[in-house]
Amino acid sequence: MPGTSSGVHPCVERTALRCPLRRGRFGNVTESLGLTCYLLISRNAAGVAKFVASSRLRRGKEHSERFQERLGQPSRNRPPGPLVWFHGASIGEAKSVTALLEDLRNARRDLSFLLTTGTVSSAQILAKQMPPYAMHQFFPYDVVPAIQNFLGHWKPSVGVWLESEFWPAHICEAHRSGVPLVLLNARISSNTVRKWKFAPRFSRSMLRRFHRVHVQNEETWNSLSAMGLDVSKMEVTGTLKKTSTSLPYDSGEYEIQKENLKNRNVWVAASTHAGEEEIALRAQLLLRKKLKDTLLIIVPRDIKRTEEIVVTASELGFSPFVRSSGQSPGGSTDAYIADTWGELGLWYRLSRVAMVGGSMVPIGGHNPYEPASCDCAIIHGKHTKNFQEVYAELHSGGGSVLAGTPSELACAVEAALDPAVHAQMVEAARQIFVGSNEPMTRATELILSLLPNQPAGIQNMANAVGR
Question: At 157, which CATH number?
């Protein structure tokens, strides 16, 4: 089996190419000329980084009070004891390790966690959802002086990168500083491989810094092999998102909105992108002719698109209510725009059917585990490359319905709102997703193996807590 710890992938002879590379300055790893040049530029780019930060700040793309974190200047003190650093591009990657943090903390009570992301929205959501033993900082730009400040302050015991984040200076500096790097939940598309094929020595030299890599599927295995990663470092473990905890929600707000929406047929278009709202709204036009008191809740992926969505809805004859304006989804409205951060768990729980965004337009589809964990019947489009195997399993097993046009979507929603059909779809999805803790178990074991030994006194206290 590809990626298991007991053997080597059958393609190893084909993919484990060896190139005569020279010894590098940045640790005991050979370098490519391209990577050496990149690191040289990065070492002298502090001024450029400040200019970029200022420009992004003026455009609202950086946090007004915390943008200095992007330059490697921390805003919080480092807690005592071992620190595990997790990095993901945005909120989706960060949320995928929620259960893993809890598992690690249960194993070692002396652990603290640092999560870094690069988006303002992720910081806003994580501020509400992180446990007290974890903290968030913005990921520094890929500039060596900023990275050195960051690493010098936080001194992570282990660095855990998520999915497909490759920042060469960060990877090289962490390795040079003696931080063991792990890539978890790796998912690399063929498009990414095509971009890196023009710099094969660069990618090979960079990827050698990773101590271990857990990949989601064989496609990623092949992709990383093609990029030069040593196949003996890889394991196919599946996706952490399958074992992530359900989205959090405000139970008090849930009770209020549940009362507002009683006796209504509620469905949600979740994490939508441009073009998908119109498809959902046109489906809603068809639905409201057939079903009484149908309500569509639209949760856009980018809440800055609210005005655009309101215009689209108005042109189609709706009078939408908007969450950020203080309006509730009750009353006579049949289209509601939930344009606030961190409330997707609330809307999933209030809905019986979910159209998963990013799948009706060529984005690649978003996480199907979250609506399934909230007992939503799942509807999706054909663009599901981000979770291709999962959606295929869902569709073939009766846990989801494929739709592409407004009429197809309306028919699918109407069917899934039927209690019997809804129950069948929810149970089918549950059977597909249930009982797969292996990715998290293997990730926990790997990270714990790379940490310094736990002091005996803390170990005894942890055992006492466990009893």
Answer: 3.40.50.11720
State whether residue 40 is helix, strand or coil: helix
Q: Which residue has the tokens 């950086």?
A: 62
Long-range contacts of 51-54 (CB under 8 A, 24+ apart): 52/141, 53/141
Q: Rounded distance, CA 116 to CA 89, Å?
A: 8
Q: Could you tell me which residues are beta bridge partners of residue 457?
A: none
Q: 158 and 297 share a domain?
A: no
| pTM exceeds cut of 0.85 | no
- Is there a contact between 276 and 361 (Cβ–Cβ < 8 Å)? yes
Separation of alpha carbons 185 and 450, rounded Å: 18
* Predicted confidence (pLDDT) per residue in 395-453, tens digit: 999 999 999 999 999 999 999 999 999 999 999 999 888 756 788 999 999 999 999 98
Same domain, 231 and 256: no
Residue 8 lies in a domain: no
Can you tell me the distance from the alpha carbon of 106 to that of 109, in angstroms, rounded to the nearest whole number? 6
Digit-coded pLDDT (tens) for 172-181: 999 999 999 9
Compute the average pLDDT of residues 145-163. 97
